[in-house]
Specification:
Receptor-associated Protein, 3 domains, transmembrane helix
Length: about 400
């Protein structure tokens, strides 16, 4: 969605300026009129580098936004005015991207706009859940508390992703190391023994012939295999940065035994923790489901949440709508149903998220504890087979010489 810079006059005759998102300038003008502003000038913001025609956007990092949220919540809790708090953060930060963003937010808020409108111009830094919670909090007058909740949730989400990444990094390192060792052995070590046997006119038999044939094939196609390795690495980097590629990969992994359970637990954590956070901030149920739908990393999950949203809009209870789809684990669904019956759905969702986050952490730890030794045993057995095959061939040659 493009950004538009505007100038408008309010009912008191004061000139206001700012940047907001809209699908078109006409919709932008309609939105300004809805806010009782008379638009004077509306211009789409073009982010281009001088002379090159390349688009760039300086965006604060995830951790910078989290720290900004915590600092702003602390200042607001100390009864500092919002515009003054933004000014203090702008003047104290040493990060260029964050300083630039806070300067823009300060300018927009100082001209009479809400904080939700200001951060809405930075969708890469502030997701829709963040913006909506701030919008509701500004109406309710508890922006400082809401920002504290958002910061805590962002920290929790970052820590969960860090644990998952750390758990997966060890097996991935073992696999890459194993591939590198095997490639070195087949291209640098085995050919020496193969040349020695050929020089003596001996012919390898049995498993030794398989090892030497595999070594010759690997050495002959080493360039091609290196290119394939580089392409595979580039593919991994592309998948890590592409939401579409991630969605496809996650959908495919869901068909593997055991992985489907992990993905369901991960969905339960994301759905319930986000719902609890939105519910605590006073966001209505349909809006919460719409925002959660946008957080789903795969298309199928987003479609399921959309189906739940449609059922809720038709008058169904949340748990009744969830019971028609295989989205949450049965235990989590029952806990939500109990919370819905007692009128405390938000706290029930938080308990479900905490429960399945702990289970997901344990499942990942167990999987890592199994995969690591399994990879080591497999590689050790393969290398042992290669060594035994080569030694057997050399011993047979020694018997022939004697």
């Amino acid at each position: 969605m493009p950004n538009f810079r505007y100038r408008a006059i309010d009912l008191s005759g004061q000139m206001l300026e700012g940047v907001l998102q809209a699908n078109s300038s006409a919709l932008m003008a309609a939105e300004l009129e809805r806010q009782a502003l008379f638009p004077i000038d509306i211009e789409e913001v073009k982010k281009t580098s001088a002379g090159l025609g390349l688009s760039f956007q300086t965006t604060a990092s995830y951790d910078d936004v989290t720290a900004f949220t915590e600092d702003l919540a602390a200042l607001l809790s100390a009864s500092v005015a919002l515009d003054r708090a933004l000014q203090i953060i702008h003047q104290s930060t040493k990060r260029h991207a964050l300083a630039s963003m806070t300067r823009s937010l300060w300018d927009v808020v100082s001209k009479g706009h809400s904080f939700a409108e200001a951060i809405g111009a930075y969708p890469a830094a502030f997701p829709q859940t963040y913006v909506k919670m701030v919008e509701v909090a500004e109406v309710a007058g508890n922006l400082d508390i809401t920002l504290q909740v958002i910061a805590q949730e962002r920290r929790r989400g970052r820590e969960l992703r860090r644990r998952l990444t750390s758990a997966l990094a060890y097996p991935a390192f073992l696999v890459l190391a194993a591939i590198g060792v095997l490639f070195f052995v087949l291209t640098a070590v085995i050919p020496e023994f193969d040349n020695a046997l050929v020089g003596m006119g001996a012919v390898a038999n049995g498993s030794a012939s398989v090892v030497f044939a595999l070594s010759r094939a690997t050495a002959a196609n080493s360039t091609l295999m290196s290119i394939i390795g580089v392409v595979a690495l580039c593919g991994v980097l592309f998948i890590s940065r592409s939401k579409t590629a991630k969605s496809i990969l996650i959908s495919l992994l869901g068909y593997l035994p055991g992985i489907d359970t992990l993905l369901m637990q991960e969905r339960a954590v994301v759905f319930c923790s986000t719902f609890a956070m939105l519910n605590k901030s006073g966001v209505d149920l349909p809006t919460s489901l719409r925002l959660i739908r946008g957080l789903m990393r795969e298309k199928h999950s987003a479609e399921v949440v959309a189906d739940v949203l449609a059922r809720v809009r038709d008058g169904s209870q949340l748990t009744d709508a969830l019971s028609h789809v295989s989205f949450l684990p049965p235990y989590g669904l029952q806990m939500l149903r109990v919370g819905e019956t007692t009128g405390d759905t938000g706290k029930a969702a938080l308990r479900v998220a905490t429960y399945y986050e702990a289970r997901l952490d344990r499942s990942i730890s167990r999987a890592t504890a199994i995969i690591g030794p399994l990879v080591l045993l497999t590689v050790s057995a393969l290398i042992a087979w290669i060594i035994v095959s080569v030694i057997t061939a050399l011993l047979s040659l020694n018997d022939l010489l004697m």
